[in-house]
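Subject: design request, 294 residues
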């Protein structure tokens, strides 16, 4: 069997184009230009490159970027003061503080300080609680992207046996909540799960958010299942060249699964596209407008 490759790059490009069209319409009709504030503390190369991609995407979509780059030595009080300033700034509809933060800053205090209405990362405990309670919420971008990719294969996820490996607040837990909201039957696995391969083999929809290169092997996958690989791991090959791989062994998965996301080019591009959706939604809510049509 040769699995369908879920082309996250193309799906994300379509979503970004839809967000751009909707932003244009809303800006023309209401004079509302959604604004996204992105705060980077320090010089982590991966974070810098990610923040750069976000800013480019914001500009391409017709939204307004507000970029803040603070030194690695920034105190928690100084970052907190910036977050409070942005909370009060009506032009900044979304606020994103890039993680990880330097060790002198308590990330959970910063996350809790962001106005939940502007929490486009969906990390604030209020949004996490609303999501878990089945109430409208700004949900984390990567899991929302996973759902959108899964739905390109299964227009309805209702009744599917879904296994999520990973229980982080950023990916695993919100992904499980979103799947539950879609009426899937959800199991969350983690490092203490017994016989993970057997558990995975039950899944119609297998989502891996582990952070371990190619841990999920072909014989963990039920024939015909859909596999969503969230992992991004840098490895050095036998040729000494560095490359990105997922948490799933793609070469094996593609022979067993019905559909699978590649790394790179699967879940990754969806994250920024879903951030744009969240920013547009947050702007509409703050302006008292109906939700956007994306
Ligand atoms: P994380 O916070 O480190 O969480 C990893 C989860 O995997 C934990 O719940 C952990 O279990 C579980 N785990 C670790 N080893 C395991 C094992 N041997 N068996 C079963 N479960 C195991 O990571 P994260 O932030 O969720 O990210 C996960 C991956 O997704 C990383 O590769 C990250 O780079 C990637 N990611 C990608 C995007 C994107 O845009 N594509 C966005 C975010 C993250 P315990 O809880 O028991 O420790």
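Subject: RE: design request

Done. Sequence follows.
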């Amino acid at each position: 069997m040769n699995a369908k490759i879920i082309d996250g790059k193309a799906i994300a490009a379509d979503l970004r184009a839809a967000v751009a069209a909707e932003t244009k319409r809303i800006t023309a009709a209401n004079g509302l230009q959604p604004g996204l504030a992105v705060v980077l503390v320090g010089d982590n190369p991966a974070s810098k490159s990610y923040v750069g991609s976000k800013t480019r995407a914001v500009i391409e979509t017709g939204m307004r970027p507000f970029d803040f780059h603070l030194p690695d030595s920034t105190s928690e009080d100084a970052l907190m003061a910036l977050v409070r300033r942005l909370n009060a700034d009506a032009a900044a509809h979304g606020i994103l503080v890039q993680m990880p933060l330097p060790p002198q800053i308590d990330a959970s205090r910063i996350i809790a300080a962001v106005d939940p209405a502007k929490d486009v990362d969906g990390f604030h405990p209020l949004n996490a609680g609303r999501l878990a309670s089945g109430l409208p919420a700004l949900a984390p971008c990567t899991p929302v992207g996973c759902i959108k990719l899964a739905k390109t294969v299964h227009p309805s996820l209702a009744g599917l046996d879904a296994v999520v490996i990973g229980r982080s607040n950023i990916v695993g837990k919100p992904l499980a909540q979103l799947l539950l909201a879609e009426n899937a039957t959800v199991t969350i696995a983690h490092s203490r799960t017994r016989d993970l391969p057997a558990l995975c083999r039950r899944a119609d929809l297998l989502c891996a958010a582990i952070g371990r290169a190619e841990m999920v092997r072909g014989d963990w996958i039920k024939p015909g299942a859909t596999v969503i690989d969230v992992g991004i791991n840098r490895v050095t090959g036998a040729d000494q060249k560095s490359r990105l791989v997922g948490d799933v062994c793609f070469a094996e998965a593609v022979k067993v699964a019905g559909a699978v996301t590649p790394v790179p080019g699967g879940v990754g591009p969806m994250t920024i596209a879903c951030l744009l959706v969240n920013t547009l939604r947050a702007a509409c809510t703050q302006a008292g407008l109906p939700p956007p049509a994306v």
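Residues 142, 165-168, 170-172, 189-193, 196, 209-212, 230-233, 267-268, 271 surround NAP (CB under 6 Å).
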